[in-house]
Write a structure and sequence with these properties.
The protein is mostly helical and 412 residues long. The protein contains 21 helices and two strands.
Length: 412
């Protein structure tokens, strides 16, 4: 079971793309597309009778690129294209992937201008009738061009923020930004309409739409990205939509509806504590019940066991639930966990370890343990017996609360 996660790395498409992120020298982050590129080259089939000279040429190109031997790489690429002219149309159609592979290498090393020129060349390569896979590749090449343009636009936006609006330079910079955004939107828009996981491209496009005040357009893009059934399930799509709606100060019900889907996909996500707060403030009883479920769900994951906020929320909400005469809600959640939570969270080992590492956390956990398992349970008993000058009042209060709110029959 995993820790909280803000943005979850996802493949670029459902089956084809593995997203191993590569950081360039400029700090830009691009998914590596080797698997997709290979599937475009071979059409998903194993290579058959691929000319020895072509394979050798490809190997030489890759080796030269890795060694920064640009002149040799260019010569090998020229030879490769000559070979393609003598080969069948299927291999000729695969040419753009070489340029894309080269461009991604250049991006990785921060050579943005060279990468942009390479992508422009790949974009214009045409031979015969395009296959559907090649069409996606061309759209991807254009989208990467858009991402580079967005990077330039972002720098201009930063420069603009440092200028006085009455300054002549402000108008010039603003116009330059507008020109870049127009080019970028054309390149990004086509790709994000194709079913797939296009997180960096969607974020870039939405950032520009918001900057120019097109909030309706931004909302439509994010809504389609999150809810269109043709797109693969993607937690990040719901995170982006939620953050946008939050910036818009959308109604609580709308925010809850978005996070409810994220909860079903990633119950340990960092936003679940915010989801709990929204549910707690709701006037609907069903939301109050869900708020309890969400907290238990978060703490089911090992990566969240040290989160003091989650434990504090659960301790307070357990007491609130019991005082609201909703013991059945608590029992429903506890019955599915009572056989494994005690050893998972409340063992004697954890009591000693938690008290040593984080006494405030240990007190919150002890209160939960006492409510769920009774004052005689080892975790609560160990913490309640500790003598600590600063926490003495807190431990005394904890004992009183457990005596009053524990769901365990005192006689047992």
């Amino acid at each position: 079971m995993s820790d909280f996660s803000e943005e979850l790395p996802r493949p670029m498409t459902g089956d084809d793309l593995g997203e191993t992120r590569v950081l360039s020298g400029t700090g830009m982050c691009f998914p590596w597309l080797q698997k997709h590129i290979q599937s475009v080259v071979t059409g998903g089939k194993k290579e058959k009778d691929f000319a020895q000279t072509t394979s050798a040429c490809l190997s030489f190109i890759q080796e030269a690129l890795l060694k920064h031997q640009w002149q040799q790489a260019a010569e090998y690429m020229h030879s490769y294209f000559q070979i393609l002219e003598d080969s069948d149309s299927y291999k000729r159609q695969a040419a753009p992937e070489i340029s894309l592979q080269h461009a991604l290498y250049l991006l990785h090393h921060g050579m943005l201008d060279d990468a942009n020129r390479n992508l422009s060349q790949a974009e214009t390569w045409r031979y015969g009738e395009k296959s559907s896979s090649q069409e996606v590749l061309i759209n991807l090449i254009q989208a990467y061009k858009g991402l580079l343009q967005y990077y330039t636009w972002s720098k201009k936006k930063m420069e603009l923020s440092q200028l006085d609006e009455d300054d002549y330079a402000y108008n010039t910079a603003s116009q330059n930004m507008l020109n870049h955004s127009w080019k970028t939107s054309i390149n990004l828009c086509a790709l994000i309409q194709i079913p797939g996981v296009w997180d960096p491209f969607v974020k870039s496009y939405v950032d520009m739409l918001e900057f120019y005040g097109d909030r309706d357009g931004a909302r439509e893009v994010l809504t389609n990205y999150a809810y269109d059934e043709k797109f693969p399930s993607n937690p990040n799509a719901h995170i982006y939509l939620y953050n946008f709606l939050k910036r818009e100060k959308a109604p609580r019900e709308k925010l809850i509806s978005v996070l409810k889907i994220l909860y079903q996909i990633v119950p340990s996500h960092k936003l679940m504590l915010e989801f709990h707060r929204l549910l707690r403030k709701s006037e609907k009883e069903e939301h109050h019940k869900l708020g309890l479920e969400v907290l238990f769900g978060v703490l089911d994951f090992s990566g969240c066991t040290k989160n003091i906020t989650a434990w504090k929320y659960l301790a307070n909400y357990l007491m609130q639930t019991l005082m609201g005469n909703h013991l059945a809600w608590l029992q429903e959640e506890w019955n599915s966990r009572k056989n494994w939570w005690p050893s998972f969270h409340f063992s004697y080992f954890w009591a000693k370890s938690d008290w040593k590492e984080d006494k405030a956390l240990a007190c919150e956990k002890a209160l939960v343990a006492g409510i769920l398992l009774g004052k005689g349970y080892r975790y609560f008993r160990y913490i309640s017996k500790q003598d600590h000058q600063v926490l003495r009042k807190k431990i005394k209060r904890m004992k009183k609360l457990v005596k009053k709110c524990s769901i365990v029959n005192p006689g047992l």
